[in-house]
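Translate sequence into structure tokens.
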Amino acid sequence: MVYILENDPDIRIIGTACSGESALEFLGRHNPDAVLMDIHLPGIDGFETTRRIMATNPIPVVVCTASTHFAQIHTAMQALEAGALAVMKKPRGLGDPAAEAEAAELVNTLKLMSEVKVVRRWRREVASATEVNPFVAKPLSAHGDFAVVAIGASTGGPPVISQILADLPKPFPVPILVVQHISTGFTAGFAQWLGTVSGLPVHVAQDGETPLPGHVYIAPDDQHLRVGPAGALRTARDPLHHGLRPSVGVLFRSVAECFGHRAIGVLLTGMGQDGAEELKLMADKGALTVAQDEASCVVFGMPGEAIRMGAVRFVFPPEKIAQFLATSVRPGLKKGETDG
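Result follows.
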């Protein structure tokens, strides 16, 4: 890993550590812009090391793992929950056709994450007690039953999504469609992890399937997720949108066109502006639109842009989003029925 980082002129390595304990000791004396963390460490693992970093001396942490096996994904997701900003697969060795692209993705992610201003992370039960007043952009209009909830997230999204899903009542009366920007190769493990922690059936979306009430569908690796005219899910490796695939905007636009006012759009923590414009389209068509509040966001880019555009009706912290969905959603349309 060192040789990959050293090849970039914008990166200077100030130290390495061979264990979690030595990493914590080093960080007690130095303050780097970012930390690249291996999951597999002697002594305390990458998850616990990340948790201790974020509870004492917060520094942007990018987690790396050589495996996409569920056990490693679960630990990586725990590290995200503890405050790591991203999880990446270790680049393959020199000579592999994918090695150069994977190395470039890792370097670019580390450089981007080094610019994030992280804050100290306390245990979830303490943080979730914070009271936040909702912002209301326009009065809530009365309309019929909802048919779908669409959620979009990027940096910092996995633990927020898991909290929202875990706090929803079971069974939940409508399908939940999710686009999470995550490194290629981790989507299947992410879906498994979400299913474990949330208690809801979570799937990687399949092209042509009809979404079921109470089920969660995650956009596949490197494919956009959208809803077709008849309400079926469509997945495809279409051109990038906002430089991304999958894109939150692609999902939100299709939901706006298919379900109109019978949808709820939720935009969570993340860099950039993916989904903001399309959340405005959802709002213009009468959908309920929700953004995560700034205080609980790792990066307020996506929800902040949506609020600036007037796309958001309500702003809540994650636990309030789950409560809002639980009280707002009633049994939706019949199978295959849409707004148009």
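Note: The first helix runs from residue 2 to 6.
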